Amino acid sequence: NHTDAVASNYASVYNRNIYNNNYIESNKNKSNIININIDKIRLKKVTRASRAALFSSRVQRIMYGIRMHESHANYKAHSKWSSACGAYQYITSTWNNYKGYPTACSAPKAIQDKRMLRDLLLRYKKYDGDWKKMIAAHLYPRYANNKSLWDRHIPGNPTLNQYVNGVLKYARI
Q1: Three-state DSSP class for 131?
Q2: If you average pLDDT over every residue of the chain, what do you get?
């Protein structure tokens, strides 16, 4: 009887351990599967959201960098050497009577910022997301897509390399 009781008890403990181990292993696997699936879903959502946030942040920083480099954020600034004016120093022909304002400096801050944002978004598409080319195109679009020309002197301006680096320094990118 005693032997049967010990054997039965041993079998019971053995079976419980096997069951518990299998249960734990199966729950671990299920748990991992659930966690992995949730992580994948979260990762996709976070990635999209973080990409949008990063893009928006970068655009805002570049706008700030250009604004500081061009006019030290003076929306009424006038160039001594050309028709460029406003915070982003648009020349009259480029400004092209945007939103009914003859010059950038005659437009309110919000309109100047809107124009810069519009231009950056168009350049983002044109230059396949190359931020440096986008910045370069603001100063001298003719050379923007050819980085081998970025060290050439542009009359009345820094080289494109100097300009881009100056903007990036202000933008802290």
Answers
A1: helix
A2: 82
Q: Where are the alpha helices (DSSP H) in 72-159?
A: 92-95, 109-126, 131-139, 141-144
Neighbour count for residue 62 (Cβ, 10 Å): 25
Give, as one character, the DSSP assignment of residue 36.
Answer: H
Lookup: tokens for 82: 């050309």
* Partners of residue 154 on adjacent β-strands: 157
Least confident segment among 27-41, 105-119, 123-137, 146-160 = 27-41
Q: Report helix, strand or coil for 154.
A: strand
Note the pLDDT of residue 48: 77
Q: What is the pTM of this model?
A: 0.71
The span from the CA of 107 to the CA of 152, in Å, is 33
